[in-house]
Write a structure and sequence with these properties.
Blueprint: H1 6-24, H2 28-31, H3 46-73, H4 83-105, H5 114-141
Helix pairs in contact: 1-3, 4-5
Length: 148
């Protein structure tokens, strides 16, 4: 049975925009004059990148939830995931947890120590970079998430 390429494309576009908007919340695009290139000015606008990050995070959460429920309903064994598929799933879970904690820290009345905030920021950034590296490896080696 041939599967649709649409979910893969949506995942790729989501990963692209969530990464761009995440890095856009740091001032690197303005600092290194990338935002001065025609069409890239939005990368230096914090509230725009913040909104895009939250929207694409919601899309990523929806996709992860859908795939998790589908995986459980079909009762597939964990061995059906490739090694890179397990690593990607673990990295996405880590990003969901750290991202969720970072959302919670922004709520009124919630306090995290400065050390905890720095740890969450660095862990979230590290997990993002690791996911990009693993995704690049799987794209280059053409390794799918699931064994056929």
């Amino acid at each position: 049975m041939k599967t649709s390429k649409l979910p893969k494309r949506v995942y790729g576009v989501t990963l692209l925009f969530i990464t761009l908007s995440g890095f856009g919340q740091m001032p690197i695009f303005k600092r290194y004059y990338i935002a001065d290139i025609t069409g890239f000015g939005w990368l230096a606008q914090f509230y725009i990148t913040h909104s895009i990050h939250y929207i694409t995070a919601a899309v990523l959460l929806a996709m992860a939830g859908y795939w998790t429920v589908s995986f459980l309903i079909e009762k597939q064994p964990m061995s059906s995931l490739t090694h890179l598929g397990r690593v990607k799933a673990g990295l996405i879970l880590g990003l969901v947890v750290t991202g969720g904690l970072m959302v919670v820290k922004n709520l009124a009345g919630v306090y995290f120590s400065h050390a905890a905030i720095h740890l969450m920021d660095l862990l979230h950034l590290g997990l993002c970079m690791a996911l990009l590296a693993v995704s690049g490896i799987s794209l280059f080696t053409r390794t799918p998430w699931m064994r056929r």
